[in-house]
UniProtKB/TrEMBL annotation:
Belongs to the CENP-X/MHF2 family. Belongs to the prefoldin subunit alpha family. It comes from the Eukaryota. This is Uncharacterized protein. Heterohexamer of two PFD-alpha type and four PFD-beta type subunits. It comes from Caenorhabditis auriculariae. Keywords: DNA damage, DNA repair, DNA-binding. GO terms for molecular function: DNA binding; unfolded protein binding.
Length: 212
């Protein structure tokens, strides 16, 4: 019975990895890479606009990326205005001063979103690492280890007598509780860092209620 319940828990975690964590990780990485490329393009445009403004250029020559990292030389006869991508397929013609203001704000927003997606990816990765590190064929604590801990804890007190079946059930419950606790701590760790005591404090009360 214990073995069946443990196997079901393992299948539940594996399903959670396949259907939720891994897709979220891939989506976060894909969106972060896309925004990073967009941010790079805005940075390049900002440099060009800043040079035009600083030199007070009326016309200039540029190398234009036409896609797939292919560049061509272009002659700009009027440097007073520039066409800027606002969002998606929406573009606007702005003066150099307005363009610089918009681009700087856009880069700031993009960097914040890139940082957020990086945190999401780190959390997904830490969750996957944690769950994949869980043994699929045995529990974290063996019944013999649990028995040793119980023996140490009851020293100087009444001798604790526990049969093998009860010990197996107790060991399964301890490992189930440990796995669930670590999983919830990983989700609560929004900074993608090592699990710490504060993460335990965030989830322990609700965990006790759920297992009551």
């Amino acid at each position: 019975m214990v073995a069946i319940e443990t196997s079901q828990e393992i299948q539940k975690y594996e399903q959670f990895l396949r259907e939720t964590v891994q897709p979220d990780l891939l989506k976060a990485i894909e969106e972060r890479n896309k925004l990073s490329e967009e941010c790079e393009q805005y940075n390049s445009l900002l440099v060009t606009c800043s040079k035009i403004k600083a030199a007070n250029l009326k016309s200039t020559e540029l190398r234009v990326d036409i896609g797939q990292r292919v560049f061509v030389n272009a002659q700009v006869d009027n440097c007073e205005k520039v066409i800027v991508k606002l969002t998606d397929d929406l573009f606007a013609e702005l003066t150099i001063d307005r363009a610089i203001i918009f681009i700087e704000k856009r880069i700031t927003l993009l960097k914040k979103e890139i940082e957020r997606l990086g945190t999401v990816a780190a959390n997904c990765q830490s969750t996957m690492t944690l769950m994949l590190s869980m043994p699929s064929h045995q529990t974290h604590l063996k019944p013999t280890t649990v028995k040793s801990l119980l023996t140490i804890g009851s020293r100087g007190k009444r001798k604790l007598a526990i049969n093998q079946e009860t010990l197996a059930v107790l060991s399964a419950l301890i490992n189930l509780l440990t796995r669930e606790l670590l999983l919830r701590c990983s989700k609560a760790n929004t900074k993608g860092q090592q699990i710490c005591l504060n993460d335990f404090k965030k989830v322990i009360a609700q965990l006790m209620l759920d297992f009551a």
